[in-house]
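Narrative progress, year one. The postdoctoral researcher (J.K.) led the effort to move from monomer predictions toward full complexes, under supervision of the PI. The following entry was the first complex the group processed end to end, covering 110 residues in total.
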Amino acid sequence: MKDCIFCKIAGHEIPKEFSYEDMDVMAFPDINPISSVHILIIPKEHIKDFMDFRNSSVLEKVKDVIQKIVKEQKLEDRGYRIVVNGGGAQVIDHLHFHLIGPLGKAVPME
Ligand code: 5GP
Ligand code: ZN
């Protein structure tokens, strides 16, 4: 979608270091990380938010990519959080999953 920053990243219009890319899914570091690992995982297709997420095969792929990055970053032991903001909590209107770690269980939600 025109004027969507994450569509531009997905379309390689904005040069970016990617953590992962395939036909449907892309992962890249958050520009303003809140932890040493803070990666955004997005469907390349412009889906506005979680409530518009209907394509279960893409959901499955997003899950696989998140699991792969959790393993690569050795977060299974170090702790992690997967966050999807929605409604008024969402700033960028292109569905994205935040993978944040390492995080202990005692760290409160921001
Ligand atoms: P949310 O929409 O879930 O509230 O948060 C959007 C997230 O996208 C924020 O964590 C913000 O730092 C990140 N972000 C905003 N613009 C860019 C950008 O141009 N590149 C990257 N890599 N991250 C961005
Ligand atoms: Zn978009």
